[in-house]
Amino acid sequence: MSVLILAEHDGHHLKQATYRAVTAAQHWQLPVHVLVTGHNITAIAQQAAAIQGVTQVMQADAVALAHPLAEDVADVIVRLSGQYQVIVAAHTAFGKNVLPRVAALRDVAMLSDVVEIKGSKTYVRPIYAGSIYATVESTDTLQVLTVRASSFALAVNGGAASPIVMVDTAAGTSRVRWISEVHNVSERPALASARVVVSGGRSLGSAEKFQAVLAPLAEKLGAALGATRAAVDAGFAPNDIQVGQTGTVVAPELYIAVGISGAVQHTAGMKDSKVIVAINHDADAPIFQVSDYYLVADLFEAVPALTKAI
Amino acid sequence: MKILVAVKRVVDYNVKVRLKPDGSDVDIAGAKMGINPFDENAIEEALRLKERGHATEIVAVTLGTAACQDVLRHALAMGVDRAILVETDVLLQPLGIAKLLKVVVAREQPDLIILGKQAIDDDAGQTGQMLAALLGVGQGTFISAVAVVAPGILPLATLVHPCTAHEGEIHVTREVDGGTETLALRLPAVVTADLRLNEPRYVKLPNLMMAKKKPIQTYHAAEFGIDAPIDFGARLKQLNVANPPARKPGIKLDSVQDLVDKLRGEAKVIR
Ligand SMILES: Cc1cc2nc3c(=O)[nH]c(=O)nc-3n(C[C@H](O)[C@H](O)[C@H](O)COP(=O)(O)OP(=O)(O)OC[C@H]3O[C@@H](n4cnc5c(N)ncnc54)[C@H](O)[C@@H]3O)c2cc1C
Ligand SMILES: Nc1ncnc2c1ncn2[C@@H]1O[C@H](COP(=O)(O)O)[C@@H](O)[C@H]1O
């Protein structure tokens, strides 16, 4: 038996989250296979084959998978699943969409957002917006789980390239048609994998001020911008930079929270950062409880001063 | 079009949940309970589809103990037409819930099934996808917009990329990593609501009073599998619960310069 990892890529590169899932998969001490789905993806399969700890790559290459739908990707995995003891994906929009389907089709339970693998069927995962960690044991033979990428180290490239095997794909579902996608383009590093994140809350006041105050600091630090749900709802920041329970979970080297109160739904997405800095003018702001360093200050003065001092 | 909305009773999102002293489980006795926030978005969207003339009937369903009636009252007060309780004292998890919901779907024959994208207690985010798989239908998860369109007609501008629909389809826009994606789903289909889908309406007190008088259709989960028993019991065993690793208490700094010095010297995260 082996472990199968569902890889994620942007058409050119494997995502960092996949490299982290490879590290998680080492836990079982079984051969690790990586499934790459898409169309014309030989170069990506080769990237997967080069990762240390990957023993085989399964390449599902078909026109119908050019914009992979959960229905079709799950179908590919279910066909292969007989030879696997564990099926893993990163807990991203892609992994979350596909793996519950696989679990249901195989009649097994699934574990979402695993932060630690304790035994071959025992896991730690956050519940109640990360305010509690539950240790859970699965009673199924086949394990299906998504892992929180930021909780596992990046696997490295190395060794000889592992073999690439082509796998069969079906015709594609007739129940769903892919129509279009919109990628928010930004010159900044991707939020999920940035080394530094500068996040702002509702207190920034407007989309203009959000940019005017935070962008120069982010620029200087080579940081990604993040936001609270309140800032996103108010239209100050785009949806895809929301950090938290319902947004992206990040764990950068440095997280700077600007004018953010520190609701659990927000801290759920950033409290594993290595160093957390908070700037808030309320001396009792809950965000200070998860910060390493904090300033009780008006953000409109402190942030420009910080930008200048760095 | 008939819509089925699945709603879950959860601890209110403002409650700080505690652990039982023996660490076996969370202690939610006496905690304020309410409808899962995402499920309110699901109901709201169903109501809007009805108000726009696309839906004819909206049925809300919940699975759980008799206490779960209160979230159905909430759904009725928001404006759903009927409410179903599938009663059981058995501990429920997403796979079992999806199996029971499949039976409800078989009885009610909805065209569209709307769930929340995740329950804020277990934070699983699985049930909608599992139900779609068991039903063999398409899924639109984490959606921030829905449009129903007559064939050949451009849908609402709320969709990121409007395009003409085919017979018996709806269009949904999904939140994906780094952007959005628009899909056409053939009905019946399952969709799961993101918070961004809409702003749920407030429940007015008179409506809540009126909802108290409306009937709730009750089934017992055990009755669902008379011909072939349904295995809806829990497959995951919770061994214990704990507080997440605590962070060291933070240091309050007096000036921006102090902060920069700390980040350079002590933390070494900037140069
Ligand atoms: C189901 C659910 C899911 C959710 N998911 C998320 C999620 O994923 N991510 C998320 O972030 N939220 C989420 N939320 C919302 C969350 O509960 C909070 O409402 C939100 O995080 C608050 O955002 P905020 O800190 O920007 O705003 P507020 O709570 O309003 O805080 C603003 C802060 O700014 C400070 N401030 C104001 N002016 C200044 C100034 N001039 N200088 C310095 N400080 C100033 C104030 O003291 C205050 O602390 C969710 C909520 C629910 C119900
Ligand atoms: N006990 C339940 N009764 C009805 N619907 C439920 C129940 N549990 C979960 N759901 C639905 O499934 C969604 C996702 O839940 P989960 O997969 O547990 O995160 C919720 O938002 C509800 O719409």
Key features of this structure:
heterodimer; A: 310 residues; alpha/beta; Rossmann fold; seven-stranded parallel β-sheet; 8 helices; 16 strands; 25% helix; B: 271 residues; nine-stranded mixed β-sheet; two-stranded antiparallel ribbon; binds flavin-adenine dinucleotide; binds adenosine monophosphate
**Mean pLDDT rating of chain A:** 96
Question: Strand order, biggest sheet of chain B?
Answer: 11-10-9-12-8-1-6-7-13
Strand content of chain A: 25-35%
Gross geometry of chain A: globular
Q: Report the end-to-end length of chain B measured between terminal Cα atoms.
A: 60 Å
Give me the number of helical elements of chain A. 8
Q: Sheet bearing the most strands of chain B, described?
A: 9 strands, mixed
Question: Which second-level CATH architecture of chain B applies?
Answer: 3-Layer(aba) Sandwich
Spatial extent as radius of gyration of chain B: 22 Å
**Helix and strand sequence of chain B:** EEEEEHEHEHEHEEEEHEEEH
Q: Roughly how much helix do the residues of chain B carry, as a percent range?
A: 25-40%
Instruction: Count the domains of chain A.
Output: 2
Order of helices and strands of chain A: EHEHEHEHEEEEEEEEHEHEHEEH
Relative strand content of chain B = 25-35%
End-to-end Cα distance of chain A: 52 Å
The SS-based structural class of chain B is: alpha/beta
What does this structure look like?
The complex is a heterodimer of chains A (310) and B (271). In chain A, 25% of the residues lie in helices and 28% in strands. By secondary structure, chain A is of the alpha/beta class. Chain A folds into two domains: 2-166, Rossmann fold; 191-309, Rossmann fold. A seven-stranded parallel beta sheet of chain A has the order 5-9-4-1-2-3-10, sandwiched between helices. Chain A has a five-stranded parallel beta sheet with strand order 13-12-14-15-16. The model of chain A has no long low-confidence stretch (mean pLDDT 96). Chain B has helices spanning 37-51, 69-78, 94-108, 127-135, 205-213, 256-265; strands spanning 2-6, 9-11, 18-19, 26-27, 33-35, 57-64, 82-87, 112-116, 138-148, 169-176, 179-186, 189-193, 217-220, 236-242, 251-253. Chain B has six helices and 15 strands. Chain B is an alpha/beta fold. Chain B has a nine-stranded mixed beta sheet with strand order 11-10-9-12-8-1-6-7-13, with helices on both faces. Chain B starts with a strand and ends in a 6-residue tail after the last helix. The longest helix of chain B has 15 residues, at 37-51. In chain B, strand 3 (18-19) and strand 4 form a beta hairpin. Chain B has a single domain (2-245), classed as HUPs (Rossmann fold). At the A-B interface, helix 3, helix 4, strand 5, strand 7 and strand 8 of A face helix 3, helix 4, strand 9, strand 10 and strand 11 of B. The complex binds flavin-adenine dinucleotide and adenosine monophosphate. Flavin-adenine dinucleotide sits between chains A (201-203, 228-231, 242-247, 259-261, 263, 265-266, 269, 280-282, 285, 298-300) and B (13, 37, 120).
